[in-house]
């Protein structure tokens, strides 16, 4: 694996860094308090090509490899995880899945709009009763003439209230478990689809998270993505790549924690000297720094495997597991460096702690990642 960034990767990273410092960082506290990032950010992300990374230019994408995608995601995560999530879901889980499994017609219909930010995508897998055990979802799509009629509900859907299209997973036959699940591209203005904002989140407060309710939602058979019954494997392969993006976002959180903690430790004086002079404070800083580098290397390894066409799913679970737990540790250590000031939102680290916490939960909890890694090691599925 080559650890040197090439010219294109260096340029895209700098572009993202400048964008974050100019368009995101100055608004982070305001957006967090208002429980919404500014909606115009979606078009700005699209204009810079960040919603089209790794997608072919033919479909409006900005090309680039998975390491470039990681670098941008990391920078966005350093700025605001709520903004990072917009990209990880609309590009990482929806557009990339349409690009991989869509018909020519589906690609032409959705990819140019998703990559430009004219339209936003959301990923509807989780239901109120099925989270980790997603294969047992109960939302149902019944064939009716040339259409499907969908009934059910989806929970905790990132981008949900803002999205124009939901990549929805529904049961199309009664086979128990994941075998009867199919994927559909459902425009969110389809009659019968209603959305409710999920309020009161611990973190990612700026992100539009929704519960979706589907009552007799009618879509044409051409809305099915991939073959009937293949929905669960489509969801799992989307999430495997998605975990790289979550891990990159976690590296961004950890880097933000490091930057903030080092800066504060050199400024804040106690007992007559900057607190950076104390060994126990340096221990906190060095623990954060090691976590940042380890998480970054595991994440870049996944990008490298994907770009070389190698198996990457277990490595993605390893990266997501380590980086998410590391982000929680790093943010928490940074808060300790800030003392009481870390506990109020005028300083950045409290938000990092709140935003980091969900990373060990979504796109597969830490326990689920361990079961995936354990299955790869032993050949035994312990789910
Ligand atoms: P459960 O599955 O009920 O798990 C509860 C606990 O049991 C966890 O600790 C889990 O690790 C443990 N557990 C479960 N099964 C096992 C087992 N076999 N062995 C050991 N331990 C086990 N979903 C989407 O589809 N799209 C989205 O865009 C999306 N965005 C989200 C955004 C936010 C802010 C949040 C909070 C969630 C989001 N989710 C989304 C849902 C998320 O993926 C689920 O919350 C997650 O998969 C866990 O499911 P659950 O919450 O039902 O927990």
Strand content: 15-25%
Distance between the termini: 32 Å
> What does the overall shape look like?
globular
**Count of helical stretches:** 11
Helicity level, as a percent range?
40-55%
Radius of gyration: 21 Å
Number of strands: 10
Helix- and strand-based class?
A: alpha+beta
Main pleated-sheet profile = 4 strands, mixed
Spatially, the strands of the biggest sheet line up as 1-4-5-8
- Poorly predicted tracts of residues: none
- Reading the helices and strands in chain order gives HHHHHHEEEEEEEEHEEHHHH
- Average pLDDT, rounded to a whole number, is 97
List each distinct ligand once. Answer: flavin-adenine dinucleotide
Could you explain the architecture of this structure?
By secondary structure, the protein is of the alpha+beta class. It contains eleven helices and ten strands. The chain has a four-stranded mixed beta sheet. Strand 2 and strand 3 form a beta hairpin. Helix 4 runs antiparallel to helix 5, helix 4 packs across helix 7 and helix 9 runs antiparallel to helix 10. It is globular. The two termini are 32 Å apart. 52% of the residues are buried. Bound molecules: flavin-adenine dinucleotide (FAD). Flavin-adenine dinucleotide binds next to strand 1, strand 3 and helix 11. Belongs to the acyl-CoA dehydrogenase family. This is Acyl-CoA dehydrogenase family protein. Keywords: FAD, Flavoprotein, Oxidoreductase.
């Amino acid at each position: 694996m080559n650890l040197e960034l090439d010219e294109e990767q260096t340029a895209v990273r700098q572009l993202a860094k400048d964008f974050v410092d100019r368009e995101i960082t100055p608004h982070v506290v305001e957006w967090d308090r208002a429980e919404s990032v500014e909606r115009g950010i979606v078009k700005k992300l699209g204009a810079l090509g960040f919603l089209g990374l790794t997608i072919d230019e033919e479909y409006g994408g900005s090309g680039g490899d998975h390491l470039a995608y990681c670098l941008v995601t990391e920078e966005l995560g350093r700025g605001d995880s709520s903004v990072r999530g917009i990209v990880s879901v609309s590009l990482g889980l929806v557009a990339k899945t349409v690009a991989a499994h869509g018909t020519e017609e589906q690609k032409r219909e959705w990819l140019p709009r998703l990559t430009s930010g004219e339209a936003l995508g959301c990923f509807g897998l989780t239901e109120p009763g099925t989270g980790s055990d997603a294969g047992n979802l109960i939302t149902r799509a019944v064939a009716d003439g040339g259409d499907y009629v969908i009934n059910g509900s989806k929970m905790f859907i990132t981008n949900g209230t803002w999205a124009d299209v939901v990549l929805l997973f529904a049961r199309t036959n009664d086979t128990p478990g994941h075998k009867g699940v199919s994927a559909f591209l459902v425009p969110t203005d389809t009659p019968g689809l209603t959305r409710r904002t999920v309020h009161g989140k611990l973190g990612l407060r700026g992100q539009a998270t929704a519960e979706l309710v589907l009552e007799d939602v009618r879509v044409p058979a051409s809305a099915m993505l991939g073959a009937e019954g293949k929905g669960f494997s489509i969801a799992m392969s989307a999430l495997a790549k998605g975990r790289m993006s979550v891990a990159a976002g976690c590296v961004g959180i950890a880097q933000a924690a490091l930057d903030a903690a080092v800066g504060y430790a050199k400024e804040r004086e106690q007992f007559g000297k900057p607190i950076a002079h104390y060994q126990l404070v340096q221990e906190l800083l060095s623990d954060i720094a090691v976590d940042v580098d380890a998480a970054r290397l595991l994440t870049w390894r996944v990008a490298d495997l994907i770009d070389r066409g190698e198996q990457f799913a277990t490595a993605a679970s390893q990266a997501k597991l380590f980086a998410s737990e590391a982000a929680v540790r790093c943010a928490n250590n940074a808060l300790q460096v800030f003392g009481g000031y870390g506990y109020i939102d005028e300083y950045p680290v409290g938000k990092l702690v709140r935003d980091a916490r969900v990373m060990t939960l979504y796109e597969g909890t830490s326990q689920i990642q361990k079961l995936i890694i354990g299955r790869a090691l032993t050949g035994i599925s312990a789910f």
